[in-house]
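## Example pair
The file below holds two records. Each record gives the amino-acid sequence first, followed by its structure token line.
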Amino acid sequence: MFLNSLLFTISANMKGWDLFVNSLWPMIQGAIKGTIPLTLISFTTGIMLALITAIMRLSSYKFLTIPARVYVSAIRGTPMLVQLFIVFYGLGQLGFTINPFPSAIIAFSLNVGAYASEVIRASILSIPKGQWEAAQTVGMSYGQSLRRIILPQAARVSIPPLSNTFISLVKDTSLASLILVTELFRKSQEIAARTYDFMLLYVEAALLYWVICFILSLVQDRIEQRLERYVS
């Protein structure tokens, strides 16, 4: 009786290990083809949108500040999952059919744009007013001052919090599996649906996310250390 139980346990463990190994590469492919591109494209687009929004928020013209405030408030006040469903399912009902991957990019970019705009705005406001005055003294316009003097300094201040946003986005891309985007977590769901070994596969997916985020955290620490050299 004991021998049978032991053999059954060993057999189950071997099957579990085989499943873990066999499912590893498909999940890595999901990360390479889905998770990482989705993160990079959404973050890049979101940062550009965030910069525009931050500048609009800092404007003295209400026709610029009001739409920016409404956009930031709406995105920050609603769940990302709801935003994702509105873009994919909601716009589809209105006749704007968008494929899953572009839909995820739009939703994630809008989300990153709203949150990152507050980081960028705060970074710009942290630059002493004397920098603006010095730029105007040498004849620079507002745009030139912003581009040549203020934004380079603000970028240095904003990199740590924006790095955290990037790492968070890597994990948030798992929500795209709900609109059938083939990324890391979606791959684990597909394999789990065939094998019914949900615990093992979801833990494996979690480990892969952790490894990716851990590597990104090391890169973030390295960047921050280099930036500290230039901070008096």
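Second record, same layout:
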Amino acid sequence: MKKLIIAAFAVVAIAIAPKANAQTKMVGGAAMYPTKNIIENAVNSKDHKTLVAAVKAAGLVETLEGTGPFTVFAPTDEAFNKLPAGTVDNLVKPENKATLTKILTYHVVAGRLSAKDILMQVKAGNGKAELKTVSGGTLTAMADGKKLYLVDEKGGKSWITIADVFQSNGVIHVVNTVLMPN
């Protein structure tokens, strides 16, 4: 009987393991584990070094390590490089912390919204869905086929290039442009 119970646990463990691995996505050359929080995963992505540095400069590390849940639209380093020269260096200065914080929290929505959740809102909203950001601003989500994109308050457009990177305290969607609030 004891061997039967052990064998049953082994079968269950093997059956569960592929599901756990299937939820782990690669971002910036690093595995993003659904058992880790947003910060624990983001620091390992080679494509998000600028974002991680900005989050640290804004003092948002503790918040994004919290229970959430959060939906984070995470711009890549390439997205930050699209900004005018010197913008990032200027934003991470201590005297610009409030502006940096506003920009970063404009990329965060309360709750855990998967790409499917956002797409359902877009379909229900006749092609558009307004997402209220933690900064108090609004992002407009839209779709082009199955691809989702966001339009910021200044009319800038950012594509979700990697969706549904689930974390213990939310979900990350990688975006290719920094979103700017009014």
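Notes on the second record: Residues 75 and 178 are 6 Å apart (CA to CA). Residues 2-23 form the longest helix (22 residues).
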